[in-house]
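Treating backbone geometry as a discrete language has practical consequences that deserve illustration. The sequence in question and its structure tokens are set out directly beneath this paragraph.
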Amino acid sequence: MDRSQEWANFTTDFDPKVYLKAYYARPDEEDRFIIRFMIAMLSKMPADLMTLEFGGGPTLYAVAALAPRSREIHFCDYVSENLDEVQDWLDNDPGAYDWRPYIEMVLEEEAKPVTPEAVACRAADMRRKVTVLSRCDALAQAPLGSDARQYDLVVAQTVTDSVATNFSEWVAVMDNISRLVKPGGGLLISVITGTEYYRVGRSRYANLHLTGEDLFKGYQAIGYDPDTFCLESMVALDKRDYAGLTTAMALRPDDS
């Protein structure tokens, strides 16, 4: 079956505002699960990271967790409207999405005081650290173009499973994104599990179901150190199109 006829298209159909309303109306246990894993993985890495959020969509909750450990954050997505949504927040546009509840959640998970001043300070840090917005294509061997730099940490939340149609293609996508990771750097991903699609409004977007074993094999296939592989999973909240969430990270071997 031709998937282009069966599923919605990100370029023509994706509406960031509908997506944010559907999945980010307020922080929930799925968000906390992702953030806890990120915080745990970040604590094992050196500070002052050069970080890339790959395929970040219109969201900034991950940036709230990345900012304290990053000297600079580059943010990319395939959909131009998502980048516009992020730029509005960075510019403090009055109509921008309100990420303060998510910043509060991140501070809670970091066991830090949650005060208006602390939230404002983290928001300012996020705006200062996000220095580049650009388009990316996970299906391209050079996802950011041929002259792209490499990063200490690349984060790709629910990206790889939404662009690949089978396991072999998913490994190729992982390999493409991995080209952006420095030797010794980390690649952190998350995927939704137990479904071949997810809904945004009335549109259905294709998704590749991957197991934890698939993720382990995928990281191994692109040359990551299995001894550094970490993975956690949770059951999805009620009324989701998917059964669960899995998040994982491993380090690329240092060539030296």
Q: What stands out?
A: The mean pLDDT is 94. The chain is about 40% helix and 25% strand.
